[in-house]
Amino acid sequence: MTTTSSQDLTNTARPMVGTDLAAEMVAKAAERARKLQDATGVQPCLATVLVGDDPASATYVRMKQNRSKKAGIGSVSVVLPAETTTEQLVAELTRLSEDPAVHGILLQHPVPDQIDERAAFEAIAPAKDVDGVTMHSFAAMAFGQPGLRSCTPGGILRLLEAYDVPLAGAHAVVIGRSPILGKPAGMLLLASNATVTYTHSRTRGLPELVRQADVVVAAVGKPNFVRGDWLKPGAVVVDAGYNEGNVGDVHAEEAARVASLLTPVPGGVGPMTIALLLEQTVDAAEAQTARR
User: Fold this and answer.
1) What is the Cα 102 distance to its own chain's centre?
2) Whole-angstrom Cα distance, residue 82 to residue 76?
3) What is the model's pLDDT at position 11?
4) Domains in the chain, ordered, with CATH?
5) Is 131 in contact with 107 (CB distance < 8 Å)?
6) Helix 19-40 crosses helix 151-162 at what angle (to 10 degrees)?
7) 177 assigned binding-site residue
8) Is 178 assigned to a binding site?
9) Minimal CA–CA distance to 155: which of 14, 3, 5, 18?
10) Are 276 and 158 in contact, with CB atoms under 8 Å apart?
11) Quick check: 114 and 85 in contact, CB under 8 A?
12) How much is the pLDDT for 9?
């Protein structure tokens, strides 16, 4: 696969770019969406739900809606006021879950502090959980069962596969324990026969643990947290962080001198997340149409 870098990593590491692979995935999803609509009259539809007026969240939602449109996927936008309660949000997500015209639901997170985010996620019907945020989706990933994957971890695995990273028998260290990023990433790596160590920002001796890893997934939400001298020479480094100023969780300049492969920020994991979201929306539409 021919790739182009969005970040100058000119030392040792080869950039593990997600842009081209994501474009291929979206093109294939668009073709499947067209075929479904031609055959059944059903256009895959993604509902996005945004609570409040956070500018960054609003930008992300608009970007996802634009990508959906380009892929031939319809979109429904629900914007709720910042003072929305958990009960009100759950009611809206339940309504969308019961709407046969909606095939996938994305709740933009984080949500305002007064909302029980887990309760909101669990209001999404598992068949429409195209972002992979429910406990049902996590259990399917953990038990190796068919289901919708958490989009960022699922995108990471697809990227590792595309770059022929050998996972069987490899030691993977995941830095981060989010239920929609770090934890499912570890489950998917384990399913690929990697040996997985979960760590986080409070792990004692973290640099020494990371230094043992063949594959590092940084998903801790702290800019430049992982330093170059934490890495084993030749390690594959996936930076799943995105912080203000287009800065990831890995110190890119230092890591580039040590790693063999390194995802740029932006242009690495981000495009894969959106591509998998759209692909899974088409998956969900096909499955729901077949059941009907």
Assistant:
1) 21
2) 19
3) 58
4) 42-125 (3.40.50.10860), 151-269 (3.40.50.720)
5) yes
6) 110
7) yes
8) yes
9) 18
10) yes
11) yes
12) 42
pLDDT exceeds 70 at position 2: no
For the record, the structure tokens of 186 come out as 């570890």
Report the C-alpha gap between 133 and 167 in whole angstroms: 24
Annotated binding residue at 32? no
Indicate whether 54 pLDDT > 60: yes
Which residues are known catalytic residues?
64, 108, 131
Residue in 179, 229, 239 with CA at minimum distance from that of residue 7: 239
Residue 7 is predicted with a pLDDT of 41
Name 56's Cβ contacts closer than 8 Å, sequence gap at least 6: none
Q: Is the peptide bond before 266 cis (omega within 30 degrees of 0)?
A: yes
Q: Judge residue 290's burial from the number of C-beta atoms within 10 Å of its C-beta, 0-12 exposed, 13-18 middle, 19 or more buried.
A: exposed
pLDDT of residue 278: 97
Peptide bond into 110 cis (omega under 30): yes
- Mean of all residue pLDDT scores within the chain: 94
Residue type, 279: E
pTM of the model: 0.93
The percent of residues in the chain predicted with pLDDT above 70, rounded, is 96
Residue percentage of the chain with pLDDT more than 90: 89
CB distance 196 to 186 below 8 Å? yes
pLDDT tens digit sequence for 218-265: 999 999 999 999 999 999 999 999 998 999 999 999 999 999 999 999
